[in-house]
Amino acid sequence: MKRSTDRILTTHVGSLIRPPELREFISARQSGKPYDKAGYETCLSASVKEIVRQQAAIGIDVPSDGEFGKSISWSQYALTRLSGFERRPFANGNPWAAGADRERFRGFYEEMDSRDPPNTSSESVCVGEVKYTGHAELQTDIDNFKAALKDVHVADAFLPVAAISSVIPDRKNEYYKSEEELTLALAEAIRTEYKQITDAGLVVQLDDARAAVTFDRMVPPASFGDYLKWLERMVEIINHSLEGIPQDQVRYHVCWGSWPGPHVTDVPLRDIVHTILKIKAGAFVIEGANPRHEHEWKVWGEVKLPDDKILIPGVISHATNVVEHPELVAERLVRYASLIGRERVIGGTDCGFAQGPLLQRVHPSVMWAKFEALAEGARIASKQLWK
């Protein structure tokens, strides 16, 4: 994994807005309608090639494939790559419509959901043995990405996948003896995915919104202690899922959910950072640009980032169409560098710009303007840090 040895490098969280022609194929796949499979494969390959070219051209040093090969969301995609699950209508209402933030701002969330209905409309039930079956689908993603990388000059490259705590969240268990046994089976299975990516010479990023978001959905009525106990166990299982995976090929991303809501019930970073840093990853990609969490850059003056770790803070937001000024991006980057060292900071985003193949948080033109601001802000910061 590359460091910012002579300038501040740039990257992002992974999921990018899909082009219209690819969205048409994805929509057909999601709805079960017939589609031209050969046409889809051609479109997917060309779309990945173009999105990688655009990232490199605009100044993103560590690009992804945009997660273009996933036909459903960043976490539910695992349903297409794991055996043992079936989909059913929610038995007791949509669990995504729960949480302390939603309770306090009920009217706001009713308006938001009417504009952007929740991605998930059915629950996932484990009814059989969980095994990894997505080798071919994942290999297609790897092949398309590596083919695209041949045409650009970048510092590194990564593929984002779900951390075990976020794989098929809110799953139901009807097969294993306990939720713990199911989670361990998922960890064993998903390790295959992580290893296939790193064996291909790419960095794997574990996306884990659930690690922080679960606080909002547990407390109250549960206590912070209950939540922390859950999180500590999830970190242990994440590390179990990473056994045999080189640490310097692993990035771990944690955010407080991508939705553009108030977020007043988010767990503070300082309350969970010591636990998260136990994860055997070489870099930590942490939300830090939105107004609810930007102040938390100060945490890194209180907490020592291990010498062998890199920090990739969000310095641009995915959730607002307001484009950050490059000077502000530079200011944010310099703050982090002053605390942990310039070579261990890479500029990133808070979260993905598309939370699902058909759900985008900003207009595509705004996404690229934000990336321009990120790249220019990194250049300004580099001039200050390497005088």
Notes on the protein architecture:
With 387 residues, this protein is of the alpha/beta class. Strand 9 (310-316), helix 11 (326-340) and strand 10 (346-349) form a beta-alpha-beta unit. Helix content is 42%, strand content 13%. The protein is globular and about 60 Å long.
Please give the number of β-strands: 12
What radius of gyration results from the CA coordinates? Answer: 20 Å
Placed side by side, the strands forming the largest sheet appear as: 1-10-9-8-7-6-4
Structural class: alpha/beta
Briefly, what is this?
This protein is an alpha/beta fold and 387 residues long. It is 42% helix and 13% strand.
Which descriptors would you attach to this protein?
12 helices; TIM Barrel; 7-stranded parallel β-sheet; 387 residues; alpha/beta
List the helices and strands and how they pair.
Blueprint: E1 9-10, H1 20-31, H2 37-58, E2 85-89, H3 100-104, H4 106-115, E3 122-126, H5 135-149, E4 158-162, E5 172-173, H6 179-199, E6 203-207, H7 210-218, H8 224-241, E7 250-254, H9 269-276, E8 283-286, H10 299-302, E9 310-316, H11 326-340, E10 346-349, E11 354-356, E12 359-360, H12 364-385
Parallel strand pairs: 1-10, 3-5, 4-6, 6-7, 7-8, 8-9, 9-10
Antiparallel strand pairs: 2-3, 11-12
Helix pairs in contact: 2-5, 5-6, 6-8, 7-8, 11-12
